[in-house]
Amino acid sequence: MIRRRLLFIGLAALLLGGLSSSVVYRSLQKKIVRPTPGVAVVVAAHDLSPGEPLQERDLKVLTYPPDFLPDGVLHSTSAALRQGLLLPLGKGSFVTSSNLVADKEDRVERLIPAGMRAAAVSVNDVTSVAGFARPGSVVDVLVTGPGADGRRLQSMIVVQRVRILATGSQLEGSVGKDTRETHVVTLLVTPEEAEKLAFAAQQGRIQLAIRNPSDSNQDQRPPVNTLDSSQARRKTIQVKSTEPPLPKEHEVDIDRGGHIERIKLKESPDSPGTTSPGHP
Known about the structure:
The chain is an alpha+beta fold. The protein folds into three domains: about 60 residues, Alpha-Beta Complex (Type Iii Antifreeze Protein Isoform Hplc 12), CATH 3.90.1210.10; about 110 residues; about 40 residues, no CATH class. It has three helices and 13 strands; from the N terminus they run αβββββββββαβαβββ. Strands 5, 6, 7, 8, 9 and 10 form a six-stranded antiparallel β-sheet that branches. The relative contact order is 0.10. The model has no long low-confidence stretch (mean pLDDT about 75).
């Protein structure tokens, strides 16, 4: 009887222990946070600077939890290839759509090399060479306005051998509408040339002159303020001052009543053939 009672107590304790263990295990399982599957994102493989289009070597893909990702993050390197950066990116930084310059046909930025600028000038059907100045053309830029005296007009070349990036909204390399009605031409220039164009636009009327792209000559010409082409060719004659020649002396004998007197005469340098008495 005692053995049965002990056996029953042992079985009850074993069942109670198993039930308690099961409850505790389930409680611990609920408290454990299971890791969330990561998301593939694009980051900078090394320090990146704005300018050059992104290449495969500039990017790499890492896995991050989705709860800690910024807006606009890219999940494939193909979405960032051949695009430029607006701001520098450090190694390991997320590459997002907001810090990329899209490589599209309607973006002029892709046509501007590092160190160059795109400057716009106002033109019309005449000053744009009747619409023959198109994207890709090489031109000289002239300005006609008041001269240094403020009254007389003059014309001069401001910049030479600059390429047209766009006429209106049509970019170089794109097929668009007729550009003869364009009122704005965008030129590829250096920062110094951009300053000259900005100043010239305030001084007078801008005009374009198309030139052969293979012509690399840089003319150094003074401003033109007359239609008389011969006046530009006139040269100043340098007159050298010379010392007048020494007067020549002549001896003359004069008979003064049987007395012969010899005198010296000097020839005047101002009037050849005229003499003046000298002293013996």
